Amino acid sequence: MGNVIPKNRKAYGYDYADLGSVVNYVTEVLGFRVEQDIHYNNLPQYPNGYGFVVTHYWQDFSKSWSEYAAPVPIIVGDSAGKREQPFMQRYGSAETYARRYSLLTLFCLATSDDDGQLAGYQRGNPMNEELRKQVAALLAQGNIPAGRESEAIGNRIKMPVNYARLTDWQAQLFINSFKKNEEVKEAA
After folding, report:
1. In 5, 29, 107, 132, which residue has its Cα 20 to 30 A from 185's Cα atom?
2. Helices 168-187 and 149-157, interaxial angle, to 10°?
3. DSSP the chain
């Protein structure tokens, strides 16, 4: 079993593993107890920075907690271009993000396809307009809610995908999976 945590949430157009699933993996699979704290200091300076999340751990055979490690800055963005959110909600999101990435960094963990689809590398040609229409029709036929397209397509073709970056090949796999189902139904 590798140190890869499956993604289980979707927001803002991408999939991610939430903090709870990362903590569960570290405690249940790896067998560590963890604590996280926020440290405030002046160095290094980050614009909109509000301290650092640091993590330390205890394993059953240890005699004490580890030193604090894996500092991740809490950087609170503004609401420009997004729906308006109060500062505390934006701070809470930034803190949760920092906690998750502090754990992932400390234990050298990754979430499934952590950088594959979104790192700028595109496998194959982007889906053409005709395929996009066919995929959209199949998603509508399946009553797939907006924002869940990547998950539905990925589950169907058994690979992680990003609907916005779907390739011709991935779209064709998705469409063909429905055609095969229809052929099986007709033969029965």
Report:
1. 132
2. 60
3. --SEEPP-EEETTEEE--HHHHHHIIIIIS-EEEEEEEE--SSS--TTEEEEEEEEEEETT-SSPPPPEEEEEEE----TTS----HHHHHHHHHHHHHHHHHHHHTT-EETTSSTTTSS---SPBPPHHHHHHHHHHHHHTTPPTT-HHHHHHHHHTS---GGG-BHHHHHHHHHHHHHHHHHHHH-
pLDDT band, residue 119 (cuts 50/70/90)? very low
Task: Map tokens 């440290």 to a residue.
Answer: 39
Conformation bin of residue 70: beta by default, left when phi > 0, alpha when psi is -120 to 50: left
Evaluate if pTM is beyond 0.90.
no
